[in-house]
Amino acid sequence: MTERTGRAAAPGGGAVPPAADDGHPSRVRRHTGALQEVPRPLRVASEVCARLLVIAAGLALLVFLVVQLRVVVVPVAIAVLLAALLAPLVRWLHVRRVPRALATALVMVGGLAALGGLLTAVVGTLVDGTAGVVQEVTGNIGSLQRLADATPFDLDVGVLGDQLMVLVRDNQQTLTSGAVSTAATLGEILAGFALCLFTLIFMLHDGSRIWSFVRLLAPRARRARIDVAARRSFASLVGYVRATVLVAVVDAAGIGLGLWLTGVPFVLPLAALVFLGAFVPIIGAVLTGAVAVLVALVTGGPVPALVILGVVLAVQQLESHVLQPLLLGRAVRLHPLAVALAVATGVVIAGIAGALLAVPLLAVLTAAVRSLAASREAAPRTVDPLLAREGEPPPATAG
């Protein structure tokens, strides 16, 4: 027999205790009291730390996957950079009634021809000028020795050169094995180049259709806002790549002209090196400028080296104070500290490739965050991802 209170009679005549209920008032009070025993700042801090640990674990997993798949990720990322540079040219041809497939082919063939011509000229200059450079270095050993004698260190340039030759001869086997590993790396580079070329062709020809499919992965409620953020990110990337190429051309032309006027050999290879180094902010300009000064020192002596040092410093000042603020404009607004930290992080994670891709990735993420955080945004169809000025969301209106 059961009582009206709902308790069942036990076989021995006693009442069965009520089952535990999470919603029971007494249990809720005990749980609330336990929470009140933990200070609120400590409870908030622990919850924030737990969420940060989850985010850090996700980012660490993402970085691990990127590093493991770097043979695929790096060529695709470079293809995206090249697409941001060449896509406006493809559309320019397409607007003028050139079929898109033909416009893509013309741009690709023209780019490959320019790259092949530059490589041929650089390699030819290196081969033709090596013998002359060796003679110039041999003739300048005396001036280099006098320069070394002016320092507080006891240096003998001739002895250093002889020791270098002995070191190379004694480590010939190590250098041979290094050449084998270099050949394997060269194979990876060729495979990456083929993947980059293949990806770039489809991005230039079917970029809008590829993005139309990718955007379907976003939640339906936020799809339009994410679409706008992605368009502004690519527009910011277009502005960044275009400005970086123009800055690189100015750097290479300025330093190359200084090398030519001072009679330093290897003008074209050094100018090409400066051009490539400009794509790595801060580090690239310093390293390539140092190489140019060092070549001027060993081939021409201290006076040409000082002249080239002045040219390098003048070009870098022109780049940092005039060209970058003027060319990047409002489309890509990155603080110098953020750029330095991004380059350092990229070098630690992926070496040269990381340094090359860190700042463009930072520019893309910055544009996306600004767009998503804006109080209002335009419709996706009104944002042209190939115009650099579209990288900035509209200003918020008062009220």
Written overview of the protein:
This protein has 399 residues and is mainly α. It folds into 2 domains: 71-137 and 160-217, no CATH class; 224-399. 77% of the residues lie in helices and 0% in strands. It is built from 12 helices and no strands. The protein has helices at residues 25-37, 40-68, 70-95, 100-139, 141-149, 157-170, 172-214, 223-261, 267-277, 283-300, 302-328, 336-373. Helix 8 runs antiparallel to helix 11 (302-328). The longest helix has 43 residues, at 172-214.
Beta-strand percent range: under 5%
Low-confidence stretches: 1-14
Spell out the helices and strands N to C. HHHHHHHHHHHH
Enumerate how many helices there are, as a single number.
Answer: 12
Rg value: 31 Å
Mean pLDDT: 78
Based on Cα principal axes, name the global outline. Answer: globular
Oligomeric description of these chains? single chain
Total strands: 0
Number of domains: 2
Helix vs. strand class: mainly alpha
Helix coverage percent: over 70%
Separation, N- and C-terminal Cα atoms: 70 Å
Q: Describe the biggest sheet?
A: none
Family: Belongs to the autoinducer-2 exporter (AI-2E) (TC 2.A.86) family.
Main location: membrane
Protein name: AI-2E family transporter
InterPro entries: AI-2E-like (IPR002549)
Features:
transmembrane helix, 399 residues, AI-2E-like, AI-2E family transporter, membrane, cell membrane, 12 helices
Question: What's this model, at a glance?
Answer:
Keywords: Cell membrane, Membrane, Transmembrane, Transmembrane helix, Transport. The chain has helices at residues 25-37, 40-68, 70-95, 100-139, 141-149, 157-170, 172-214, 223-261, 267-277, 283-300, 302-328, 336-373.
